Amino acid sequence: MSHDIIQISDDFWNIRGAFKVLGLLDVQTQCSLVRLPSGAFVMLDSYGLEDEVRERVLALTDGGKAVQAVVNLHPFHTLHVSAARTMFPDAKFYGTKRHHSECGDIGWEPEHPEDDGFGDRFESAFEFHVPAGVQLVTDDPHVHFSSVLAIHRPSGTLHVDDTLSWLPLPWGGRLHWHPTLGKALEPGPDAAGAFRRWAGLLAERCHDVKTVCTAHARMSDLQGEAPGVVAEKIRLATSRIEWKLRRHAG
């Protein structure tokens, strides 16, 4: 069931959903509803909305008719795509190449979120970033490191699945790279440097990001931060996995 809907700004809502491991432990998942300058809406990721959250989303979007597109960003987040298609039958559905192969009956648009220039079709509201030096999908189905990260510039929000996660700790949580990074890196010593440079560029692009929406465990505590705070958290996360990058580079 839907847990909650959190309003980040006048035009951005993060929706928390249930995702149970072994049918017992709820590690949560997410999607986000974003209003474009034109008044149309885009959903980032798919989730089967229920109860009060569903009613609120339908009220915001003229019964769902104002949802222009649903953009699926993590190749392995496929469970709720069909439910989202049922809820938003008139929306354009975008997904990674793995979404196309795993959910073939959805009626996908030909473009993929990992394609260069993908964000241009959404009124310049988004930047989409694909990690460098790592495979978006590996041969190991348990490696869920890579996804397409979305920055919504008007609200200063980063929406990210798995690639960056929020780790709740007794003394305060922290942002960290998904632990399967080592298995996701491309073969060859240059991959580590490519990822390191990309992570640094992402931190730069997040200088004005104030809020980070992460998929699992819970939404991050990074909400309404001052400029530079999120960027520094990303740099700290990268410094903590430097040993993995050096080991990969040999």
Short description:
The protein is an alpha+beta fold.
Q: How would you describe this structure to a colleague?
A:
There is one protein chain. This protein starts with a strand and ends with a helix. It has a single domain, classed as Ribonuclease Z/Hydroxyacylglutathione hydrolase-like (Metallo-beta-lactamase, Chain A). The chain is globular and about 55 Å long. A hairpin with a 4-residue loop joins strand 10 and strand 11. Strands 1-2-5-6-7-8 form a six-stranded mixed sheet, covered by helices on one side. The protein has 250 residues and is an alpha+beta fold. Helix 5 runs antiparallel to helix 6. The protein is built from seven helices and 14 strands. It has helices at 51-60, 81-87, 97-102, 181-184, 190-205, 229-240, 242-249; strands at residues 2-9, 12-17, 20-21, 25-26, 29-35, 41-44, 67-71, 92-94, 126-129, 149-152, 157-160, 164-167, 174-177, 211-214.
Question: Strands, helices and their partners?
Answer:
Elements: E1 2-9, E2 12-17, E3 20-21, E4 25-26, E5 29-35, E6 41-44, H1 51-60, E7 67-71, H2 81-87, E8 92-94, H3 97-102, E9 126-129, E10 149-152, E11 157-160, E12 164-167, E13 174-177, H4 181-184, H5 190-205, E14 211-214, H6 229-240, H7 242-249
Parallel strand pairs: 6-7, 7-8, 11-14
Antiparallel strand pairs: 1-2, 2-5, 3-4, 5-6, 9-10, 10-11, 12-13
Helix pairs in contact: 5-6, 5-7
N to C succession of SSEs: EEEEEEHEHEHEEEEEHHEHH
Number of helices: 7
- Strand percentage, roughly? 15-25%
Largest sheet: 6 strands, mixed
Query: Could you say how many structural domains there are in total?
Result: 1
Helix share bin = 25-40%
| Anisotropy-based shape | globular
Instruction: Give unreliable regions as ranges.
Output: none
* Physical arrangement of strands within the biggest beta sheet: 1-2-5-6-7-8
